[in-house]
Fold:
Amino acid sequence: MFLPDFYWPLIGFLILAGFGSACEYSPGICGAWADGDIRIGVLSSCHSKVQTLHVRERPEKYNCTQLNLISLVRTLAVVHTIETINNSSFLPGVRLGYYICDTCSDASKAIQSTEQLLAVNGTLTVQCEVLERPNVKAIIGARFSEDSLAVARLLSLYMVPQISTTSSAQTLSDRVRYPAFLRTMPSDVHQTKALVNFMKHFHWDWVGVVCGDDDYGKNALQSFLADSEAADICHAFKEVLPHYLAHNEIDKRIQEVAETIRLSEAKVVVLILKEELVSKLFKEMIQQNISRTWIASDAWSMSRNISQMEGINQVGDIFGFTFITGPNPGFKEFLQQLTLSPGSVNLFLEEYKQLGKDAGFLTEAVDISMTYGERLAVWSIAHALKHLLNCNETDCPGERDFPPWKLLKELKKINFTMENQTFYFNASGNFMNGYDLINWQPQEASVMKQAGGTLCFVMMVGLALSYTSVILFIGKPNVHICRGRQILYALGFSLTVSCILVKALRTFVSFLPLYRQEHAKRFYKPPVIITCGTLIQVLICILWLIFDSPAVEAFKSDQSLIITVQCNEGSGIGFGIMLCYIAVLAFVCFLMAFKGRKVPQAFNETGHIILSMLIYLFVWVCFTPVYISKVNERYSIQAAAILVSCYGVILCHFAPKWYMALCKKKEQLTREAYIARANNHIDSVDLIPEITLEPEFPYQTLRKRTRSKSI
Structure:
């Protein structure tokens, strides 16, 4: 239809007037806010899903459900960092504000929340024109790549800087399509290369892959397939699960994927899924008693919810990669108090409090070291603002209602140091701060975790028997005492050294390359080792009692009328075999501990094992010539040797645990403290097996750092 030119402006006005209400928003859509001179927007998936999304027929309010504690803690990390900057003199005279809107883990909802953040005074302009000075000057988020991709298109139109801390899809590095997108970690292109190198190193060339049907899963899958095929790694199966958690077919698809895994000969499975889907899949694995080696993508590799699942120890070994994390000073205390600055509102926090959990619960339920990216994102904006506003020591005289593209320009130029590490956005808009390689280690649910669990009680029984044998060296001997004191010592100390052998073997196996671990683990059966180690000594003692039993002998001194009654170990062969057997066990412990001595001392007991076994071997080497010479004091010396051997074990294996329990501060024994000390010990390593660590939770992660640039 042809219309004269002067009709079009009138038609456009009528259309905009009619649909102007579509551009109006209520400030209450966002779940948390605090006013400030410059406002930062936050897109957070504080809820995991939108109800009835699959039957939505008209524009209506999204009904978000299932509060996500990980996203809540990440959101609070942004709030805490903003308040930290406001309470400092980093931006003198400037107060940062924030608006936090929920994406509910849905891309469409993320776009709606983004429009709310861009709105000026609660509404977009009637003409819906390109916004020169929107409400917020930068946006942190979203969590999932699916959401970030949708939002990045919109924000790139207005050149509003967007900084994600977790969206790792490779396509977001495209500067043509997403010129305003930045992120505080590398893209998946590095992660998939690392995964392939990891598999190639351990000769895993037949693997299965399960991913989500969102952009993150599909992009990561394509990248992984390309890299793995180039490395001659074959794929047993490639399965896809619905990204939408309320999908009608999700439970059916989970069962189908579980059946595929069960029937496949592939023993290694890569899971490129978000945490909630992995949790559903593992529940099915546990129910069907299916065990595999799992490779975790960054989306769930540090999930405490999964690590605390009932029966999680049954699913098998778990390896993975996660973005390098770091400290967030004062954040733990912030979570324990949960007090916001005056004038701020946080509806998400109010919803959490209605769950009836205390404030300290968040510090236990979520690994707060994962919030390092949020801290980096806020500080990146602060450093860019410092340059943009021409800040000095006393004031920031620059214009505060600036267009966001100016802030984006400064963000691309930032270069700052935190925790002795330099951060900047590269040409693709990514931080190149690398990954941590992690290994989940199962742990008993009871070396009393810090003291070695049930193993310490068995050692105490062995030591008690050894100490009891010393008592029998006192007083007038008879045939039963002569037999009992040697047998008690033989069995008691054999039991103790067998327990130490288990500890030495555990570290030794963990130190082996992973492809050799699979064979070595067949021999790592603690109950079998302890039982066999003790039963062999039982057999030796039985044969000794039958063929060369100790007896009582009495002799009169040539120079006096004193009659000496003492024990006689027979020919000494049985006695010698008994001592030699314990010495062999001790020497094997020493060798295994010596082999694993390069493992960081904060995470193993090789030094304690080496010292205690050296003490034992030295004491009994000194006793041997005394016994052979048959001096009258040899039994007193033997009793002393038993005492020194037992004290050596106590001082080397139990005293350090007493010190940790009584003298160490509680925070020094936490999981985060172990990880921090691990990173101090391990700067840059090849992709080698992880070190076993007795954890606080059903699974524990110990990280080894590898730079993405070197992969």
Residues 1-28, 125-130, 666-711 have pLDDT under 50 and may be disordered. The chain has three domains: 7-187+348-433, 189-327+693-710, 445-663.
